[in-house]
Amino acid sequence: xxxxxxxxxxxxxxxxxxxxxxxxxxxxxxxxxxxxxxxxxxxxxxxxxxxxxxxxxxxxxxxxxxxxxxxxxxxxxxxxxxxxxxxxxxxxxxxxxxxxxxxxxxxxxxxxxxxxxxxxxxxxxxxxxxxxxxxxxxxxxxxxxxxxxxxxxxxxxxxxxxxxxxxxxxxxxxxxxxxxxxxxxxxxxxxxxxxxxxxxxxxxxxxxxxxxxxxxxxxxxxxxxxxxxxxxxxxxxxxxxxxxxxxxxxxxxxxxxxxxxxxxxxxxxxxxxxxxxxxxxxxxxxxx
Length: 288
Prior knowledge:
Elements: H1 6-14, H2 21-31, H3 57-67, H4 75-82, E1 86-90, E2 95-97, E3 105-111, E4 113-119, E5 125-132, E6 135-138, H5 141-144, E7 151-154, E8 158-164, H6 165-174, H7 177-202, H8 205-219, E9 231-234, H9 239-245, H10 250-262, E10 266-269, E11 272-275, H11 278-286
Antiparallel strand pairs: 1-8, 2-7, 3-6, 3-8, 4-5, 4-7, 9-11, 10-11
């Protein structure tokens, strides 16, 4: 199976050194970004003629604050990150990261949806989780000194922010509080991974399905604190991909949705789901 744009992503990663500006400019032109956008994201590096799809300085601040655990990104650390890295656009179904590539930095998703997983022996994509905007695609691999721990594929057109490891290390030496902020990201991601593994072992499929729906509400800025007013979700993934994340089959996932409909918790039509009773969904998600 051909992996589109994999060589472009590899070029980005290998072009993160001090003498890599010409290569970064080349990649930026391929991506439709300006040369200035690829060289750093400080205030002086984002001229007013940047296309509208590039987030503003204020938007980048909000994205970074959302990508770190609450209260863990100080103003000095935030300022350090705003001056690092460069952006890249990839079309849908492109490979963002591959486990065969050396991990040379951290990747943050600014826009779009990415799935993380592996290809099986038949080159069919097996999805482990979904990454949404303002979430890290990979914040661990580079610290281990090997390849990326997983593959990542763009499900929509995506805008990525790459932080080269050498630049991060220099920033942490100058601003040690940044190291604590990045440790908090790793700890939070580990907490979620452990919780997900425990859910697969301890919770039945209906509870996992309810928890997944709540997580989708969280992405929309709603969730456990919502009222019982109807909330609509439009599934951006195929049901087989969602079932893979939940550790079950597409047929069992469909049966779980049917059970939730019969219980009056949701209504659905095709890939549209209306949450009718958020508190009931929370209770189901917490059941064993």
